[in-house]
């Protein structure tokens, strides 16, 4: 189940991709299938070992094209072990709501993203998330849980402050919002409640079969109750030093000429 829409976030074979806070690796796997050179990074060592095993299984099964590479590694999102401008693409999905220093994470992502590169950020949407918080303290008051709820404008402002240029947004996973509302209502750790079990079966069936009816329903409902908010942005190119110098020289010459004309008159 992908939250990033790759029709809006194009990926080319050979792109260097960082899936930051990769979790179980769903976006990293998709990028690998598309021929990218992928680094999946997470602070959870157990998940990283599982992601590495899946990468190996995908390679053995021939699921990734020639030239694609995949590495799973444990690391800290606030101190990424990569040089500046290392990646063409950075993805961070359902992670920033967990991290106290979200501005620091954005700064690190911008640092390792090359000028002209693209970034995708996904977070829980304000409305559906607010319902979950209202229904259950246990949903968010846990170690490593959600510590904030982003409004769309707030997230986009943070991205702009970090030096990014957002170019598109959308919502995703509307059918998952009721599932989490049920979980919060019946107990986040109570998977035996009949409504929760029944709805979970529906979601599994939808993910596996992708029937047209539920695809159309989710597409219609996403703007209203999509569980995730997704934002895409680019890192601007910096002006070339030579071009800046030429522009500064031209401005200086024009100023000098204007000053001389004033003195003469």
Number of helices: 9
Helix content range = 40-55%
Q: Walk across the major sheet and give the strand order.
A: 3-2-1-4-5-7-6
Mean pLDDT: 91
Total DSSP E strands = 7
Order of helices and strands: EHEHEEHEHHEHHHEH
**N-end to C-end Cα span:** 73 Å
Largest sheet: 7 strands, mixed
Which structural class is indicated by helix and strand composition? alpha/beta
Q: Which strand-content bin applies to the residues?
A: 15-25%
Q: Judging from the principal axes of the Cα atoms, what is the shape?
A: globular
Radius of gyration: 23 Å
Low-confidence regions: 242-265
Walk me through what this model shows:
The chain is of the alpha/beta class. It is built from nine helices and seven strands. The protein has helices at residues 26-33, 45-60, 102-112, 126-135, 152-161, 176-186, 194-209, 212-225, 241-264, and strands spanning 16-20, 37-42, 69-74, 87-93, 113-124, 165-172, 228-234. The protein has a seven-stranded mixed beta sheet, with helices on both faces. β1 (16-20), α1 (26-33) and β2 form a beta-alpha-beta unit.
């Amino acid at each position: 189940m992908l939250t990033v829409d790759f029709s809006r976030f194009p990926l080319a074979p050979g792109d260097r991709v960082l899936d930051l806070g990769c979790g179980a690796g769903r976006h990293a796997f998709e990028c690998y299938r598309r021929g990218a050179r992928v680094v999946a990074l997470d602070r959870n060592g157990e998940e990283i070992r599982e992601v590495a095993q899946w990468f190996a299984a995908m390679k053995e099964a021939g699921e990734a094209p020639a030239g694609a590479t995949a590495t799973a590694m444990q690391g800290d999102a606030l101190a990424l072990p990569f040089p500046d401008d290392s990646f063409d693409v950075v993805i961070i999905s359902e992670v920033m709501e967990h991290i106290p220093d979200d501005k620091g994470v954005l700064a690190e992502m911008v640092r390792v993203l090359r000028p002209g590169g693209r970034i995708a950020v996904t977070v829980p949407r304000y409305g559906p998330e607010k319902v979950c918080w209202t229904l259950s303290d246990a949903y968010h008051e846990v170690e490593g849980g959600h510590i904030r709820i982003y409004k769309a404008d707030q997230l986009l402002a943070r991205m702009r402050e970090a030096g990014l240029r957002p170019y598109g947004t959308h919502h995703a996973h509307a059918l998952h919002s009721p599932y989490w509302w049920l979980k919060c209502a019946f107990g986040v750790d109570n998977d035996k409640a009949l409504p929760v079990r029944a709805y979970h079966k529906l979601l599994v069936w939808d993910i596996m079969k992708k029937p047209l009816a539920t695809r159309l329903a989710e597409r219609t409902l996403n703007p209203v109750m999509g569980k995730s908010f997704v934002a895409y942005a680019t890192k601007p190119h910096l002006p070339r030093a030579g071009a800046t110098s030429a522009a500064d020289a031209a401005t200086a010459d024009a100023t000098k000429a204007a000053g001389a004309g004033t003195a003469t008159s």
